[in-house]
Structures are given as C-alpha cells and as structure tokens.
C-alpha cells in the first residue's frame, strides 16, 4: 500500500476541514482500508459560534456518510472540551452517549456524529484516522494474532477487542493515562482495526498507509499466491439459483435479489472441502455483521432430495433461520426483538457465492464485503488459523442499540422492493412507462425491444434496456437466462410487445395479418413459455398481459390487430388456469386510445379520427369520462396489478379506457 497524497493538491486547500475531506477520501478510496461507510476520521479546529466567539471543535465523520465520497457537510461539529469530558465518566449508557453527542453539536442540522466521537476527542492530536484495514484485521483474527501484532508493531499501542463507542473510548482513555501516545504511530485494536494520529493530516494519513503496508508485507512473506483457491466457472444451474433465492425470500418474508459471483476466486473458495467451515466462523470485523450477519448460508450444488416416503427436506435457508433463532436465544436479553433470520450471503458449493439484498446497491455492498472476507479467511488459514471473535461479541454489535436506531430509520420498503421484472416492447409508450414505473416501485427491470433505442432510454444498472427480437426464440431464451443469472430469478413479466396496423379490410390483408399474429400473439406465447419455469420459482410471481379494447369491441379495418389481441386474451385466461397451482397470477389489462405510444403513428391516428368524423383532440377523449388515457396511467395500473393489492386476483380482464360504451 502506497501513499496517494499529492502535495500540489494539498497546497490548494485553505482550511482544516478541506484538508480533512481530502485525506478522508484518500482513505476511503482504498477498499483494503475502508468499505461502504466503515471507518471514521476527525480533525480538531476552531470556529466561530453563533455569537462570534471562538470555540474549539471536533469535526468527526457523521453517520450515513462514506469516506470515499465524503464532503464537508458530512462532518459533525462537536464542542471539543465537553466531548472529551464524556470519557472521564465511569459509565455512560448508549442512549445517554447519543443524546449528549447530539446536544454538543454546534449545528443541529448536521448528521449524528460517529459512535467513536469520544475516542477521537480524547486522542491529544489534531488529526485522527480510523480504518478496518484488511491486512491488520486478518493478522489479529488468528490464534497467535496478539503475538504477531505485538512483534510487528513495537511502535503501536496494542489493545484487546472491546465494544465500540463509550467502552472503547474508556479503554483508550485509561491506556493513555499510563502510556505516552507520543511514542506511538498508532493504536492497533485486535479484531477491529487501526487508529493513527498526528498534528498534520498528511502525517496521520501516511502513518496509516505505513502501518497497513507493514502488515501486507508480512503477509506477502508468509503467504504464496497458491494459497488462494481458484477454479474455472462452471455452468450455472439457473433453476437451482432461483430455488435458492426463493427460499431466502420466504425466510425473510420479502423479495430479495440474489447476485451470483462465480468468478474464479469465488468458485475456487466454494470448491474447497472445508468452505462450509471457513464461511461460518464469523466476519473479519464485527462491523460487517450489520451487512452480512454473522455467517454465510451454505447451499448444496443441487437441491436436496429425499425418498418418496421420507419427510420433505429442510432447505438451507430455513435451516439457517433455525440456527439464527438459536443464536439469538443464546445471547439475547429479555427486552430484545429478533431481527429477521434470513441469510445475507451464501456459499453455493462448487459454484460461487451469492449476495442477497433488497436492492442492487445492497447486494453490491455485501458482495464486496464477501469478496474481501474470502481473501482474508484464506490468508488467515495460510498463516495459522482463521479465528473470528466469539459469537457473543458479534451478537452484541449486531444488536447494539445505536445500530438498531440506524436501521429503524431506513423507512418502509417500496411495493416491489427486491423483485425482478422483464418488460417486452420497452423502448417506448406503455412498455417504457411500465419499465420506469416498476423500477420506481422497487424492481430491478430489464426491458426488451427490437428497437436499439431501448438501451439508451433504459440505461442504469437496475433499469436496463436490451435489444431483443421477440420473434427469435434463441435470442429470447438467451436474454431471459441472462436476467435470471444476473439477478437470481424472475417475479414479474409484462408482455407488451406488439404492432398495430389499421385501415386494411379483411379482403386487403396479406403480410400484415401474419406480422400481427406473429408479433402480437405467437411471440407473446413464446416469451411466456420460456419464462414460466423461472416464474414458478419467483416470489409473489405475476404476469400482466397488455391486451386491447379491440378484443371485445373490435373496429372495422383492424382485423389482424383485433384477432391477435383476442388470442392474447385467451392465452392469458388459459395461463391463469394452468399456473395458479404454482402461485403465478396472470391478468390482462385492456387499454384503449393510448396515443403516446409507438403503436399509434400520426397517420393511424389521423385515419381513425376521420373514421369517427372527429378532430384528433376529440378522438383522444372520446370515452365516457372524456379523459385522455396516457401510457403512464396504464403503467401505474400494471404495477398495481403485479403487487399485493391484486394478490388474490388472477384471470382478470381489466379495462383502462375511460369507459367505452361498446365494451360496457
């Protein structure tokens, strides 16, 4: 690990806080030091209070901010002297600590200060840095960890693990009454991390880099590249992946994404004979329990089967939940309420690792932590034996009241949070609006369309447009498989792709008939058929077919369209009958006169208005309610039908047409 400090840039910074932001970001940019909101930094300075008086202040990282991207508002300004005084108390409850720190803020709009604020305040140096450096934590998570660290760091104060917050602050306070910190470059906290300090931001930062580099060099001298397992990725059993995901969703009682890592490193670890033992000893640092729970869930490569006369097997996620309840009961106090017992990551034997989360962002965070965990575990084994903290210590942090308060502020999930959707015909109109609506309601959405523009209008990591001709079976099959492998399954399918060509009477129909039937009906059946195996493994699975008012009230000159939509409607009715036993709902919406779509060309709209002897504006609102129906209206209905409000509805035909007298 090398210093990234740039003197030329630092010279442009005009105050203590600006420099603090700069070196904090340098630390946050190193994943081997700080991951996803971990670590904390501070600087002591002087500012003017409301009355213009000079006040000594501790600027400490605020809760919810990430060192990688932190800005000046991310630091909480605390009255320094009063914050120091808190360390002199014999005891301080978590509630009192949180309340007192909040009361000591100069700015009540600032974020809540780090739980390590008291510790930052009492260290008698201007700048303090704290990280959970992988290399250092790996050395301390070892049977001989304390001896190794004491020998490697004669210039550091080495302290045993205690709970963060006031307990840790008190431990350091007592230690510096005995030891002169000026003789040390930093503090090594076993199983926890590293503190460095100086009166200069660069010195504190480079002390951190030097101490961590020392651990990395020690490891490099003990561990060869061959110590890390590696295996070629194997073919992924997509239905097994869906089955794993569904079991986790059921245990958690909510939809979860399941993001697979089948890289050579992950597959190699999952292929180790003792992978199950290694992945269930505990996290590399207690803070990770808040993201990953204490252990991984171990999944067999294939589903466990039993003889016909045996009891149904218990799936791995259910067994994990039983074990978690037992863990809770062993360590909980009577006033505690158990968190959900579902796993957050798993080792899928001989395949890779899987991260489970309610959003893609959460899954990526868990996957990053897991990737580092696998590396640290194997390093720890190579230099002796990997040993995490005892379960009781991990539990105490997982159920720490201050962390519970943070999680309680997360808010209610969106209606489709954690679900996975495919929308066909998603480049424009109803399909595009539906993809965006489902995404806004919490889904990861992949929109398919033959129009290359779909990749431009849907272009985020959780709202994706892919070019796909739904009339080409192999292309469709490939895209569906890609969705399932990327996110773990399929819950919502919106069958919207279609064409509309009017003005041709039956005796004039030729290729337009075949085209309408092929795209509107046959391709719809094709996509549905290929998705059904995955939908059967989905969570609260729902299919919504976009039909048309024409199925029940056709118009002259639209035979091909009307017949294809009538066929799609019958397809949906039969699908509802066939899939109900697998808890897959199938419903059809019937829009009419939705003109902000790719189906309606200016020419088609003009022809239809002339047929009714109306202006275009009159034609757009010719329904009973005299309302123009827009694609966003249809999208909102589709998202609602796919959700819990319609959870007991299948086989329904639902108009969205402003009221049509012919249909009524």
- Largest beta sheet: what is the strand line-up? 3-2-1-4-7-6-5
What is the CATH fold-level name of the largest domain?
L-fuculose-1-phosphate Aldolase
Average pLDDT confidence is: 93
Into which percent range does the helicity of residues fall?
40-55%
Biggest sheet character: 7 strands, mixed
Number of helices: 25
Q: What spatial form do the alpha-carbon principal axes imply?
A: elongated
- Provide the low-confidence segments as ranges: none
Number of strands: 18
Structural class: alpha/beta
Provide the β-strand percentage band: 5-15%
Q: How large, in whole angstroms, is the Cα Rg?
A: 30 Å
Short précis:
The chain is an alpha/beta fold and 664 residues long. The longest helix has 25 residues, at 511-535.
Question: What attributes characterize this protein structure?
Answer:
alpha/beta, L-fuculose-1-phosphate Aldolase, 664 residues, 25 helices, Rossmann fold, 3 domains, 14% strand, seven-stranded mixed beta sheet
Describe this structure in words.
The protein has 664 residues and is α/β, with parallel strands linked by helices. The chain folds into 3 domains: 7-222, Class II aldolase/adducin N-terminal domain (L-fuculose-1-phosphate Aldolase); 238-406, 3-Layer(aba) Sandwich (L-fuculose-1-phosphate Aldolase), CATH 3.40.225; 420-598 and 628-656, NAD(P)-binding Rossmann-like Domain (Rossmann fold, 3-Layer(aba) Sandwich), CATH 3.40.50. The chain is built from 25 helices and 18 strands. The strands form 3 sheets. Strands 3-2-1-4-7-6-5 form a 7-stranded mixed β-sheet. α6 crosses α9, α6 (134-140) packs across α15 and α21 runs parallel beside α22. The chain starts with 6 loop residues before the first helix and ends in an 8-residue tail after the last strand.
């Amino acid at each position: 690990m090398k210093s990234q400090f740039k003197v030329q840039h630092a010279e442009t910074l005009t105050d203590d806080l600006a420099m603090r932001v700069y070196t904090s970001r340098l630390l946050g940019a190193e994943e081997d030091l700080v991951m996803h909101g971990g670590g904390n930094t501070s600087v002591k300075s002087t500012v003017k209070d409301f009355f213009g008086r000079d006040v000594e202040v501790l600027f400490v990282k605020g809760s919810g901010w990430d060192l990688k991207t932190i800005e000046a508002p991310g630091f909480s300004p605390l009255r320094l002297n009063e914050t120091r005084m808190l360390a002199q108390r014999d005891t301080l409850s978590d509630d009192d600590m949180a309340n007192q720190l909040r009361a000591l803020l100069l700015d009540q709009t600032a974020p809540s200060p780090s739980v390590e604020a008291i510790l930052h305040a009492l260290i008698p140096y201007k700048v303090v840095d704290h990280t959970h450096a992988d290399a250092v934590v790996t050395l301390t998570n070892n049977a001989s960890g304390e001896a190794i660290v004491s020998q490697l760091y004669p210039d550091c104060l080495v302290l045993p693990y205690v709970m963060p917050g006031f307990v840790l602050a008190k431990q350091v306070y007592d230690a510096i009454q005995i030891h002169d910190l000026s003789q040390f470059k930093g503090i090594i906290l076993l199983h926890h991390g590293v503190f460095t300090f100086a009166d200069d931001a660069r010195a504190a930062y480079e002390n951190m880099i030097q101490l961590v580099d020392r651990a990395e060099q020690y490891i490099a001298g003990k561990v060869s590249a061959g110590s890390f397992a590696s295996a070629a990725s194997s073919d992924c059993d997509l239905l097994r992946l869906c089955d794993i995901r569904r079991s986790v969703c059921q245990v958690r009682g909510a939809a979860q994404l399941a993001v697979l890592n089948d890289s050579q490193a992950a597959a190699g670890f999952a292929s180790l004979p003792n992978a199950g033992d290694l992945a269930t000893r505990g996290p590399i640092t207690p803070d990770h329990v808040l993201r990953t729970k204490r252990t991984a869930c171990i999944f067999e490569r294939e589903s466990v089967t039993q003889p016909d006369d045996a009891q149904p097997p218990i799936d791995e996620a259910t067994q994990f939940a039983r074990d978690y309840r037992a863990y809770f009961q062993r360590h909980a106090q009577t006033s505690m309420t158990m968190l959900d017992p579902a796993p957050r990551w798993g080792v899928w034997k001989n395949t890779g690792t899987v991260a489970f989360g309610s959003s893609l962002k959460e899954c990526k965070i868990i996957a990053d932590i897991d990737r580092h965990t696998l590396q640290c575990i194997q390093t720890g084994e190579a230099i002796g034996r990997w040993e995490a903290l005892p379960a009781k210590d991990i539990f105490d942090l997982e159920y720490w009241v201050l962390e519970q308060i943070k999680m309680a502020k997360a808010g209610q999930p969106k209606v489709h949070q954690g679900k996975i959707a495919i929308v066909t015909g998603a480049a424009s109109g109803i399909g595009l609006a539906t993809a965006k609506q489902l995404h806004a309601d919490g889904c990861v959405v992949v929109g398919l369309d033959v129009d290359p523009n779909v990749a431009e209008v849907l272009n985020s990591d959780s709202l994706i447009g892919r070019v796909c001709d739904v009339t080409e079976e192999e292309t469709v099959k490939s895209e569906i498989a890609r969705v399932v492998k990327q996110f773990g399954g399929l819950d919502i399918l919106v069958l919207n792709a279609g064409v509309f060509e009017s003005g041709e009477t039956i005796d004039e129909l030729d290729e337009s008939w075949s085209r309408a039937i092929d795209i509107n009906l046959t391709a719809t059946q094709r996509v549905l058929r290929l998705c059904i195996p995955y939908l059967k493994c989905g969570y609260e699975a729902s299919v919504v077919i976009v039909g048309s008012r024409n199925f029940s009230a056709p118009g002259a000159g639209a035979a091909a369209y009307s017949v294809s939509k009538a066929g799609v409607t019958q397809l949906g009715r039969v699908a509802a009958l066939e899939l109900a036993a697998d808890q897959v709902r199938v419903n059809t919406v019937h829009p009419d006169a939705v003109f902000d779509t790719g189906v309606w060309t200016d020419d088609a709209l003009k022809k239809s208005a002339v047929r009714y002897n109306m202006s275009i504006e009159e034609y757009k609102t010719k329904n009973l309610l005299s309302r123009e129906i827009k694609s966003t209206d249809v999208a909102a209905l589709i998202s609602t039908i796919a959700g819990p409000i319609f959870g007991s509805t299948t086989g329904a035909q639902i108009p969205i047409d402003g009221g049509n007298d012919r249909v009524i």
